[in-house]
Amino acid sequence: MPDPVPPPVVPTWRDRLELIAAGGAGPTPAQLALGAVGVLVTALLAWFVLRQPPGPPAEASMARAGGAGSVATTSTSAPSSVLAHAAGAVRAPGVYTLPVGARVKDLLDAAGGPAPDADLDRLNLAAPVADGSQVYVPRQGEAAPAGATSSGGTATPTGPLDLNTATLEQLETLPGVGPATAKAILDERAKRGRFGSVDELLDVRGIGPAKLDAIRELVTV
After folding, report:
1. In 3D, which of 174, 127, 120, 130 has the Cα closest to residue 150?
2. CA 199, CA 221: separation in Å to the nearest integer?
3. Helix (H, G, I), strand (E, B), or coil: what is residue 41?
4. Which end of the chain is more exposed for a tag (fewer CB within 10 A), N or C?
5. pLDDT tens across 188-214, in order?
6. What stretches of the chain show up as alpha helix (H) in DSSP?
7. Per-residue pLDDT tens over the stretch 33-54
8. CA count, 13 A, side-chain hemisphere, 119
9. DSSP 52-101
10. Distance CA 210, CA 14 (A)
């Protein structure tokens, strides 16, 4: 059998450049056009890749990611205000918005101040105002209720606090009386059956002469 004829060898572009440099046959116009197209395509691809903007930071991508497994972040904050009702002998009775930590005196100021015939000696002006509570300002000579009930069911004292009926929460509204001292007052009351005088508070652990003087006008028996 005759030997197979090998396929013709197609010169590469390097071979053609070497032929041109050596004075040989140069590339045909079609080959030159094809080479120019290849160079143009390569340049366009490089330009397209380089002009792409950088992707967003990983943190930003994760923040926008949704679907299963994503965790929604929520923010909680404590209330910054309370609503309280000023009633009785005030110039402008009504419901007022006060900052957290406001006192009865602040509520009276918000209501335009006490009326001329208000009996402020029967109020604890330093008592904190609870959200949803009512503070009733009695008039002079008026038989006012011992307290006003808030929406939460806790009584807010508006006059001298009866040591024989006061709750733990009411006792804590007295100046210098915290949870421990208020509980000690209740324990002493339970042991005695009832207080016979305000001076008997000196037998309560945590109450000395100075503290008794500070609350004497705010309590009764």
Report:
1. 130
2. 10
3. helix
4. N
5. 999 988 999 999 999 999 899 988 888
6. 13-21, 29-50, 58-64, 104-110, 168-171, 179-192, 209-215
7. 666 777 777 777 777 767 666 5
8. 12
9. SPPPPPHHHHHHH--STT-----------EEEEEEEESBSS-EEEEEETT
10. 107
